[in-house]
Amino acid sequence: MTHTQQVGMEFMFTEEELKTVEEIKSHYPTSQAALLPVLWLAQKKYGWISEELMKYVAKLLEVPYSHVLGVVTFYSMFNKKPVGKYHLQVCTNISCQLMGAETLLEHIEKQLHIRPGETTADGRFTLSEVECLGSCGTAPTIQINDDYYEALTPEKLDSILRSLR
Amino acid sequence: MEKLILREIPDFHRIDVYEANGGYRALRKALGMTQDHVIDEVKKSGLRGRGGAAFPTGLKWSFMPKQTAKPKYLIVNGDEGEPGTFKDRQILEFNPHQLIEGSLIAAYAMGANMIYVYIRGEYLKWIQIFQKAIDEAYQRGYIGKNILGSSFSTEMVIHRGAGAYICGEESALMNSIEGERGYPRVKPPFPAQYGLWGAPTTINNVETLTNVPIIIERGGEWYASLGAPKLPGIILYGLSGHVNRPGVYELPTGMPIQDLIYNYAGGIRGGKKLKAIIPGGSSTPVIRADEIEGLRMEPDSLRMVGSMVGTAGMIVMDEDTDMVKLTARIAEFYHHESCGQCTPCREGTGWMAKILHRIVQGEGRIEDLDLLVDVANNIEGNTICALGDAAAWPVRAMVKKFRDEFEAYIRRTSRIPVPDKFTLLEPVAAKG
Asked: Which residues from chain A sit within 8 angstroms of residue B86, using beta carbons?
């Protein structure tokens, strides 16, 4: 889902998704508490959370748009702009740093010609530097979309990137 | 020693296997005890929180009001995010039912009819594994209405985080469940009085609750006899960094640090020498190799070298480690994760990170070292939550214990000496 595709688009959850929203709401005494789970649902469907999407979620949960904006911008995992098909999230925190995360990051930068925060021109890869992923015993670790790739070397990384090209 | 948490039984995450090995027996036993009796047993065990702060668990439970018109909540804190810490994830993957059982016992003891399990957003795989375990437990009647035929009912729901270290702080976590930004709350009031939606709430770490079934089954006194008297029981040590066998090791508390590094984790990689350790997650002050002889992973021993057990996630550094770069990375982390509410933390963490990067880039000044300590001192104790302290301690300890290395970094850098006389260059005229 690219930026241009999302602008001006009518956001809508399917009947089934709306049922899921109702089920989520039933777990909490306020509908605002369903905000994080519903944002997850929205991001899963649309890939990132645009202003229009935030407005849709705000209406759905009957909370002000300004509140949704505040929440979305607080949490690093909510994508505030479109990301590539594969989101490479490189942990560079200390245990990974000790085990060569910096080399790994540089390696990706060279291979894909992008810097953290950037997406390749073909929209295939987005690169991010992230904080501790809780994989310190199997460092260095990269999260690609939802999956962890652990105890990486540049060689292992190359074969992973090849499989995603 | 026999494993009590990371049991070496294949498919232990499956409810059939868990039940066949005595699983949910402790819950049955607890439901036959009075609520006070359960809390007393946990008090007797000496169990302390395993999330890093080591607050006595039984005491925390006893803060929950008995008579209240409001609902009561239990929150399981699985937001594991302190760098160097990767233990809770092992429990979610390999022993989810013991966590569920411990949570149910805790909920029963405090009269909580709703349990929220907050798991960090990145742990999607573990959320899925744990959700499966919850579903199994519902099917067998361990969660839900009238559990095991008793009058006790409680529900359990996973709440997925979305990437914010601060949400591991209990009051920020509650705000995150309420659908707010993860801002820590001013305390008091404490969560047991005014927690989720203003109702009595207790927040316990994943590992803490996983110990509870063991205590109920074998007795508080038995549990208290294990490990170090001031931090009794068993604990999951996470070893990472330059060791041959990194990983999570379940052992009694109070283990000698040398034993953990050289026996369990197989010593330093490549036969190199040890330089330093960070004993329990990135916020715990660094310990130099020459200080570790005889040190144990318990509060009194580590206090002697100005450190603490924290999460027991130990980061091991070999002789080639660049301590200045490491410190800069730690500072950068806390700067990134500061929620921004309190000025000393919001600004101070940024200043520390900036100064440290300046040193790394060869632009450091010798006065920067005292400046770093000064900034750290002005953050510590001046913030709503403990993130400020957590940011101040490691930087101050690094500068104190490796000052010579910081100084060498500043002095050896090839800064261009300032000439006695400046010759100003004519500005190049812009080409029209």
From this structure: 134-137
